[in-house]
Amino acid sequence: MLYIIGLGLGDERDITLRGLEAVKKCSKVFIEAYTSLLSFGLSSHGLCTLENLYGKSITLADREMVEEKADDILSDARHSDVGFLVVGDPFGATTHSDLVVRAKKLGVDVKVIHNASVMNAIGICGLQLYRYGETVSIPFFTETWRPDSFYEKIQRNRMLGLHTLCLLVRMDRNTFLYIRVKEPSLESLCRGKKQYEPPRYMTINTAIEQLLEVEQMRGESAFCEDTDCVGFARLGSEDQMIVAGSMRQLLEMDFGAPLHCLVIAGKTHPVEEEMLDFYKLKGESAKSEHKQTA
User: Fold this and answer.
1) Residue 35's pLDDT is what?
2) 240 secondary structure, DSSP code
3) What is the pTM of this model?
4) I need a surface site. Which of 101, 164, 177, 210 has the fewest CB within 10 A?
């Protein structure tokens, strides 16, 4: 049996009771380490914390292992219980759907244990989840590659009065990662030998800068510096930060450590506005008062 277990968004304590029971009976446990991170990251101390609570040795499964050596994981799952831990919900990333498909084709039983993800946790700001349109990904720009396919989706959402969740990602011609944790450099790939670049996480500030750059280039008024947004940092953790304001205002905020995401507001209902008001910037002195633990 292959158990795909959501860990939630905060730390090792966010696993569900059903998830913990499944982990404890698995002979091997892997944690997926490239589409997202728990609040304590993937330091040796963080992994040790997981192992101490779960009572199991945990193997770090990076992108290469999941995409190139998944058959090894699935082979074990044909004869014993194997756990595959995922930050957030198991289906928050398409990679995990692929793993389920491959398992079923090999005749491996799969059991999924869900948990909270960014897709529903953003509801804390007051913007109602059923009023969201298509989610978009904002990749890091490079000197030679500045994709803007997200622009039409945001534009379409706003024309319909819908909010847009922007996942802040690393994406290039060959890879699509929610965060850039372990990725070979282009130069090393050209040389035929993989050398990994250091972790890099997109900030809300960088995302807004890129959004405004695309708007200036396209000039179709999908959004502007005065467009209302909500910035989220470390969503689900004890020191999560939620700030609502214009793009111009959020551009000046220091949201601190990753992970970040951004919501571009559409047409708001009075009830949404009342809730959103709790997170709005009300002056320079408010910049240091927006850490939310609710």
Assistant:
1) 65
2) -
3) 0.85
4) 101
End-to-end CA separation in angstroms for the chain: 37
Listed in order, strand segments (DSSP E) in the chain are 2-6, 28-32, 58-61, 82-86, 110-113, 136-138, 164-168, 170-171, 176-177, 183-184, 196-197, 228-233, 241-246, 260-264
CA distance 226 to 40: 34
* Tens digit of each residue's pLDDT (9 = 90 or more) over 118-143: 999 999 999 999 999 999 999 999 88
- What integer best gives the mean pLDDT of the chain? 85
The single-letter DSSP state of residue 40 is: T
Q: Percent of the chain beyond pLDDT 90?
A: 63
Nearest to 103 by CA among 87, 81, 118: 81
Distance of CA 157 to the CA centre of its chain: 20
Distance CA 180, CA 174 (A): 13
Q: Is the dihedral of CA 262, 268, 270, 272 positive or negative?
A: negative
SS3 123: helix
DSSP code for 144? S
